[in-house]
Amino acid sequence: MKILDGKLVSDKIKHKLTKEVNQLDSKPGLAVIQVGNEAASEIYVNNKQKAATEIGLEFRHLHFGNISEEDLILEIIKLNNDDAIDGIIVQLPLPRYMNEELVLNSIDAGKDVDGLTDINLGKLFSNKDCYIPCTPLGITELLNEYKIDVAGKNVVIVGRSRLVGKPMAMLLLNMDATVTICHSKTIDLAEFTSHADILIVAVGKRGLIGPKMVKNDVIIIDVGINRIDNKLYGDVLFDDVIDKVKYITPVPGGVGPMTVVSLLKNTIESYKKRH
Amino acid sequence: MKILDGKLVSDKIKHKLTKEVNQLDSKPGLAVIQVGNEAASEIYVNNKQKAATEIGLEFRHLHFGNISEEDLILEIIKLNNDDAIDGIIVQLPLPRYMNEELVLNSIDAGKDVDGLTDINLGKLFSNKDCYIPCTPLGITELLNEYKIDVAGKNVVIVGRSRLVGKPMAMLLLNMDATVTICHSKTIDLAEFTSHADILIVAVGKRGLIGPKMVKNDVIIIDVGINRIDNKLYGDVLFDDVIDKVKYITPVPGGVGPMTVVSLLKNTIESYKKRH
Q1: Which helix H or strand E contains A27, and what residues bound it?
Q2: What ipTM does the predicted assembly reach?
Q3: Does B228 contact A at CB distance below 8 Å?
Q4: I need a surface site. Which of A108, A151, B28, B231 has the fewest CB within 10 A?
């Protein structure tokens, strides 16, 4: 089987986490802050809520239709000081009138289970204990589960976002991979992708990667989520590359569930550190 | 001329900075903390002192032969609260018995002119205003001075340190370069270096890069400083590659002076922000 089955692996991990939560003295608490009514955010928050309650976490959903930046930060500070809350995440994107940086960095670094505060991102540079952003963390867990060693491998990442591309690069460097980061300004993308042992694509552009852009036996991690006519597609032409790949993540059912499960893991880790 | 002359450019910048400092109401203050008696540290601190006083900064050298981690942090806190001090740097390496992370992160992020606190490194991820580590910053200044545009270029960095390789990669990504980071676990280093438009080498291994490892018209930035029989050598075999390169930095007189000048610039910037 060529499929890196994120659904299966995440179910297995959730089973383990459920047992772990049962043995704790109290329920770890996860708070998700949502501002506005983006359809995609709605779905993501629901997925997180479902997974969190499934494994026995306390889930608190703070949903604001309209709130000032100042009031939002006050809400975050309340959660920082709330002993029942171990993890705080802000569903992105925030409305344009808000300073995303300012809002994110008002989260206590010890409860920043999305790993997006300056302090946690900075610690990644030094390979120090920190909360790692959930998508990169979930990807490394998935690779681990399939015993895919990245050390010495030529890993090419397409996309340089703060949520995926950049932290993924730091994490993989810390794991001894040789890492190339490509993006929209890369002149000949195929020149890089076609040499990758492991290709991680996080752009959000359906059909970006086809069979001519990858070598035989490549391992592909497709982080793209493109919703078209209510159906989900990755950034990679799955059906066209499947014969060439050694492994590939499907969309949906690949990276997505692993991201959610990493959030749960980080929240439980925070609970343990705080108790 | 193929030489990226860091000495010349840094002199030019120092000249400009001297004028700038003369127009300020008071002298910006730079404090350098040194622990132990490493010969190399001695030289680096002297270079910084010489450059700082040359352009009119107030230079404070705190040199401890032997000090506990706790007392060192107390000294840093005193400097954090000292209004005459705008920049604080800790000369690395610290003695092994000290927790470098803890010491560095006790520096106020606003006075962290070496850009090595978690907060400043984290801000680099998001391309936000921050103090950028002096070597990567100096390298981009040097490239600017010679009107070398990195956007869309294939830049290969050899070395993944927190001081050079990793922040350099983030900085270049923010400048639209396609970036590959190689290191000691990279299996076929030449495969990567030989495709580089711009090659940045920061390993500390004399003779690591020879003519067979680079393509014609490459631009080489040699960050290596290897002291052998009291003579300085870079990581690149300068005489052997000179015919192939478009540009190259010499060692000494390339990246070194640019690093020092970046420290001065960051200190003046901190003074301005604080006044």
Answers
A1: none
A2: 0.95
A3: no
A4: B231
